[in-house]
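Attaching the record inline, Q. Sequence:
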Amino acid sequence: MAKTTAYLQSLLDNAKDGDQYQWLEAYTGDPYHYLQIKHNCGNVFELRPIDFEQGKRCDIHAHCGENIW
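Structure, as predicted:
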């Protein structure tokens, strides 16, 4: 469990905006499995770890001009 938790945390640590996100579910070991994640704007949504690693972020901010990534 510690290794899998470390993977999700490393995704946040390696992203320049990672401090604005929090994973809400435990990692299953599959980077293509959707997990709940929360952005500091309050939006909770499902995102695959692999998508976060590739730059996908909060959908609300993708359309409002506050793109920070």
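Strands lie at 21-23, 35-39, 44-47. The mean pLDDT is 86.

More tomorrow.
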